[in-house]
Amino acid sequence: MTHTPHVAIVGAGPSGLFAAQALLRGHEGVRIDVLDRLPAPFGLLRYGVAPDHASMQGIQRALVAPFTSERVRFFGLVELGRSITRDELVAGYDAVIYAAGASEDRRLHVPGEELPGSRSAREFVAWYCGHPDAEAQQLAGIEAAVTFGVGNVAVDVARVLAASPARLAGTDMPGDVLAELRRASVRDVWVVGRRGPQHASFTTPELRELLGLDGVQPVIDPTDVAGIDETDLDRRVRGNLAALREAADRSVPDAHARLHLRFWRRPVAVLGEDAVSGVVLERTLPAGGTSVVGTREQETIACQLVLRAIGYRGRPLAGVAFDDEAGVIPNRGGRVVRPDGTPSPGEYVVGWIKRGPVGVIGTNKSDAAETVALLLDDLAAEAGVKDAARGPEVDALLASHGLEASSFADWEAIDAEERARGEASGRSRVKVASWSQLTDLVRHGRGGGPLEREHEGEAAPAAEAGLAGDDLS
């Protein structure tokens, strides 16, 4: 009897869905269960791409492809460690792929970092992208904001803070987010990097978009972009330098906001008593490699909001091996390894939780292909070995725990509701952004169409551990 392999993927973001695509192409019989703690798939593509970047969000149309196969099932509202355990998954499947991403933030490690008004850019992005876990962000009274970091996340949050409300009005941002941004009176946005512009990780199109915002005056110290030897710099870095030099000479009459890009500066302290009132920066000099050294030359910037966009790190998954120092699941090419360095049979990893938070969305495609190639090699080598009875799969496991997952049909109900809300407000989509609304759609959207009502601003308990079966009547 030919064995049909069954693979579980933990995480329905780009890395997990690229892995599903690679599995479908690489094995004509494989069956795949994709698990996610949210009722909506697509991960950071849905909740981490700025809403005014519709072209990036269009990648979602490609990532939905695995769910059109009858060999792929989606189980939303399933959290590893709460809904099911790692041991249960490993026992129930021929292979498990962890695609959990990197959901923790790196810290500044300076005095005052814990003050109200100092937070992570990840939290801010989650809010304006409509993530159900996001806390509401209050912008009243904020006239100046400082973002630490010189990558595309810093570009995104700076653009959202500096842009005119009209630019964002047609996006899929939740209504309460748009309302808060309209009420904001941010006049100065600072993007600060501890090294020079030649070391920044901006991509040139995104940087040019930020520097060219209507009604926003770029403020760049010409000395920061002068005298840089470009001989060995790649095309992206040379493009960034050209964009910064052009912006340094740009004059914007009647600007409603100023965008300050400061390089060779690092934070020394966040100031304030009960809330952020400013930051202290120290000028830096290169000290070899990626290191810098302080010069003791300091300046203070008055601000009411500090956002750190200095990188993410992985979070341990319950029961799964983890390298605390690197913030990843230890692996060799995608095979999970034990503390003694030997492979852990049937366990694999893809994406940021495999290699760290580096690369763009497309990087996950080749990364997933590398892992899946090893997985398929292992399945071929073990052909016939796992014909013996396995443990129960995720649907049976959830039933045994009195839980029921959401399905891809439930996501389609959420999708239809968001499109209906968008049509009613002259937009292509409006995000459903609260747990109560999402779980209402899971409960009532099955066969009944999307809900018509709204509860904007309503708080709801997190349902990520799975909905009780009795609640799904």
Automatic annotation (TrEMBL):
Start and end residues of each stretch annotated as Disordered: 443-473
The keyword Metal-binding is annotated on this UniProt entry: no
Gene3D superfamilies in UniProt: FAD/NAD(P)-binding domain, NAD(P)-binding Rossmann-like Domain
Keyword Zinc tagged: no
Cofactors, names only: FAD
A Pfam family recorded for this sequence: NAD_binding_8
Keyword terms, alphabetized: FAD, Flavoprotein, NADP, Oxidoreductase
Residue ranges, compositional bias (Low complexity): 459-473
UniProt family annotation: Belongs to the ferredoxin--NADP reductase type 1 family.
Protein name (Swiss-Prot/TrEMBL): NAD(P)-binding protein
